[in-house]
Amino acid sequence: MFKNVFKQVAILLMSCVCVYSWAQTYPTKSIRLVVPMEPGSPTDAIARLIAQKLTSSLGQSVVVDNRASVNGIIGTDMVAHAPADGYTLLAGNSGTHAMNPGLYKKLNYDPVKDFEAVAQIVTSPLVLMGSKHFAAHTVAETIAAAKHGSLHFAIPGATAQLASLMFNSMASVDIVSIPYKGSSGAETALLSGDAQLLFASISNALPYVKSGRMNAIAVSSPKRSPALPDVPTLNESGVPGFEIEYWVGLFAPAGTPAAIVDRLNSEVGKVLGSANVRDHIQQMGYSTAPNIKAEFGMYVKRSVERNTKLMRELGVVAQ
């Protein structure tokens, strides 16, 4: 009996040593970072910045692999079912992880159970953008226009869809949502005047605001964004309690050895701690996120629960 116990303990200790040794030498080959969005999207831009820096710090190539699909489902699902060895990672975002569970009755992945939440990278508010063809420049003017005519939201994804329905509900208006494939399609709709309004990520919004091709009406954060200090929040513009944010994080398949997850978390922390990277991220309109692995995992879980409840109350459906 004791021999069997000692044998089992020895096997367990050996396996722990093997995993530790494996993690210590990780990585020994290139890493694939799946971006479930189109090239040039906000998630893609952040992923490419992080991949470049991790390539230097890890000593192996971190290669971005775009697997664009509606709301990022295909690429996210692919990573959920990839080998849990640290060589396939995901640049997930608020849509793929915090919105899709409430948007779809059935997903082939669970954003909490099927992933190790490695590190949150950036956060930012959404910006309520107005077309230059749209006369309203404030939230009050937008609400008044919506109550006296037909307006349209361009919808590039799940996060924008939820934001638009929250606006309709909280401002007591009925602005029609029109889905587009990705950010570029939605932005083109505003530029042409086919749609009047768009909830955009701040990185996508900034070039249009600076060039004067679109108007920034309000931001969705509790406080004003340092990137757009003159743009009021929705909360202070007559829609109290309105709060929704866009974020990007790094994920690994569930079951990835803890030592590898910890190594990746540490390396991302070092990258985000670099003054050059921080400045670059701030110029894009984002804020770097706290890099505490356990807190990020709980944040994702709470976001899923909150957004799923909210989406069911608002009747959000996949478009």
Explain this structure to me?
The chain has 319 residues and is α/β, with parallel strands linked by helices. 47% of the residues lie in helices and 20% in strands. It has two domains: 190 residues, Bordetella uptake gene, domain 1 (D-Maltodextrin-Binding Protein, domain 2, 3-Layer(aba) Sandwich); 113 residues, Periplasmic binding protein-like II (D-Maltodextrin-Binding Protein, domain 2, 3-Layer(aba) Sandwich), CATH 3.40.190.10. It has eleven helices and ten strands. Strands 1, 2, 3, 4, 5, 6, 7, 8, 9 and 10 form a ten-stranded mixed beta sheet that branches. Helix 6 links the parallel strand 5 and strand 6. Helix 4 runs parallel beside helix 11.
Specify the structural class: alpha/beta
Our measurement of the CA-to-CA distance between the termini, rounded to an integer number of angstroms, reads 61 Å
Estimated radius of gyration: 21 Å
**Largest β sheet strand count, sense and barrel closure:** 10 strands, mixed
Which fold name corresponds to the CATH topology of the largest domain?
D-Maltodextrin-Binding Protein, domain 2
Tally of strands: 10
